[in-house]
UniProtKB/TrEMBL annotation:
This is Glycosyltransferase family 2 protein. The lineage of its organism: Bacteria, Bacillati, Actinomycetota, Actinomycetes, Kitasatosporales. The keyword Nucleus does not apply. Keywords: Glycosyltransferase, Transferase. Gene3D superfamilies: Spore Coat Polysaccharide Biosynthesis Protein SpsA, Chain A.
């Protein structure tokens, strides 16, 4: 029977309890075939709360690399991917050595450390991958604490969340990167998250590049996990701040830094790129000005 070797890519930063919970849920996966193996590659970005030490203590099979606190989420994911390739990263028993045995992985799984997987999540993702074929990307939808979908595939110009449901995987145009399964064939065509994007936009850019490369993406028919915290409200939308502060926040590295936003617009929104480039900054300034006036 064909072997499945899964390389799980994770990052962490000062969320010790949540990271440990995510790893425990990963280790408790049920329903995977006997020939499936697993290797976890975690890159910790300068945690000061003991996250790396706790992971090594409670999950000794996880390969942990510590990098500086200035490493962005996308950069850390690229490092995790490199680690999975340099050591083979195929995976193995959770009681084995960190990183798993040195054989070639067949799939990569992006897993956010804030997501607690359902016990059968990996089995369901692999089942969906079997349905859509070896050259595709499978996205796992994630529910929030209230049961609403907070992360999933995205569709259309407005990037509407794709709800899981039905009996077959739902096609999507791009995806949030919380739970994403990439086959080796898909990875070979698309590669890693682009280094030009540090925090936001990198997931969406990857999905659109996949589509351009002829790699289809689908949302698995069933939610695969829960995330206690949904997407953060951008700081630039805080009520009462002035126009200058709102613009400072919206152009910061955690929101829409102009160079990265321009690259994204140029790649994926032409010929509307010039208009879309300035629109979020103009809306932010207008929102802040109206808010101050009303206050």
């Amino acid at each position: 029977m064909h072997s499945v070797h899964l390389a799980v890519l994770m990052t962490s930063h000062n969320r010790r309890a949540r990271t440990l919970s995510a790893l425990s849920a990963l280790e408790g996966q049920q329903g995977l075939p006997a020939h499936a193996t697993l290797g976890v590659h975690l890159v910790d970005a300068g945690s000061t709360d003991g996250t790396p030490e706790a992971v090594r203590l409670f999950h000794p099979s996880v390969e942990v690399m510590s990098v500086g606190a200035d490493a962005s989420r996308n950069q850390a994911m690229r490092i995790a991917s490199r680690n999975s390739r340099s050591g083979g990263g195929g995976g193995g028993s959770h009681s084995g050595r960190p990183g798993g045995p040195s054989h070639r992985w067949t799939h990569q799984l992006w897993l956010d450390d804030g997501v607690e997987l359902h016990p059968d999540a990996l089995a369901r993702l692999m089942a969906a991958a079997d349905v859509v074929g070896a050259g595709a990307v499978v996205v796992g939808a994630v529910r929030g604490a209230d049961g609403a979908t907070v992360y999933s595939g995205r569709r259309g110009r407005s990037l509407t969340l794709v709800e899981p449901g039905g009996e077959r995987p739902e096609p999507c145009d791009t995806y949030d990167g919380r739970v994403v399964l990439l086959s080796r064939a898909a990875y070979d065509l698309v590669g890693d998250l682009d280094k030009v994007f540090r925090h936001r936009m990198g997931d969406y850019d990857h999905g659109f590049r996949a589509r351009r490369a002829g790699v289809p993406a689908f949302v698995a028919p069933w939610p695969v996990g829960v995330c206690a915290e949904g997407p953060d409200v951008p700081g630039s939308r805080e009520p009462g701040i002035g126009v200058r502060e709102a613009l400072r926040r919206v152009t910061s590295v955690t929101e829409l830094p102009p160079r990265q936003w321009w690259v994204y617009c140029l790649r994926h929104t032409w010929p509307w790129a010039p208009l879309l480039m300035v629109s979020p900054y103009a809306r932010t300034a207008a929102r802040a000005a109206v808010g101050r006036w009303r206050a």
